[in-house]
Amino acid sequence: MYELQYSKPSSLNDAVSEIKKSSDAKFLAGGMTLIPTLKARLSSADTLVDLKGSNLSKISVSSSEITIASMTRHCDVASSKDVQSSLPALSKLAGGIGDHMVRSCGTIGGSIANDPAACYPSAALALDATITTNERSITADKFFVGMFETALNEAEVITEVKFQIPEKASYIKFPNPASRYAMVGVFVAKKASGVSVAVTGAGENGVFRCIEIENALNSSFSKEAIDNIEISPDGLNSDIHASAAYRANLIKEMAKRAVQEIS
Question: Could you tell me the pLDDT band of residue 2, with boundaries at 50, 70 and 90?
């Protein structure tokens, strides 16, 4: 690590004011994504502004949507009885992030803001989520721009994420055995408007919708409908853990398992 200044304001407004004092300051939520990227020099900062004093930890549920404040920890989403009852796929997703230390520190806002290849972005994209900040509201399909890149401005901070509750949903991932990050994660949501399928961990540019599988499932919501689909490896990640072709096959397999779970 390189030298950093640390600030812990007592309110969101103070945090925003603090971030504007430096051209290279960053908000710190749980730090589970940001700190590793700083260590690996994938990102840089001269000041970290801690959001723990911003009073942004809350879960509220209505008949049609779940609203989660940005500093709500993964473990709190996973253990919420309201989330388990209304949208069990989201509870399961949160409970499968990293290990218990990551889930006890990491937050939904930090995950969505810093890592478009993490698990939550797939739920956000599949469930037509709205990401609210201190400046505006952004739909999930406009929020994720690329790998480690979102639509957030310099002094903009997520305050809450609002998920639409579908008829049925499931999230299945193939985790890296060491980090538990999704080498491929697929979120399938069956809604009145149709089926949405969002894929994380596989794409070079972060999370994306898989239109081929969506079309197949909208015609026939069954795992057999996915059998004859060919997923192109173009634009998929290839590394020491899995080739692009292997990830293409995993997308199909994870989607089939997700459909089977909720059929």
Answer: low
Q: Which residues contact 175 (CB under 8 A, 6 or more apart)?
A: 96, 181, 182, 183
| SS3 of the chain: helix, strand, coil, percent, to 5 | 35, 25, 40
pLDDT tens-place string over residues 168-192 = 999 999 999 888 889 999 999 999 9
What is the domain partition of the chain in residue ranges? Answer: 5-49, 167-263
- Residues 79 and 58: their CA atoms lie apart, in Å, by 13
pLDDT at residue 1 greater than cutoff 60: no
- Scanning the structure block, which residue is given the tokens 């999930």? 140
0.85 exceeded by pTM: yes
Please check whether residue 158 is in contact with residue 109, taking contact to mean a CB–CB distance below 8 angstroms: yes
Q: What is the DSSP letter of 81?
A: H
Cα 181 from Cα 34, distance rounded (Å)? 14
CA atoms within 13 A on the CB side of 2: 10
Q: Quickly name the fold that domain 167-263 has.
A: Enolase-like; domain 1 (3.30.390)
Half-sphere exposure of 64 (CA within 13 A, CB side): 2
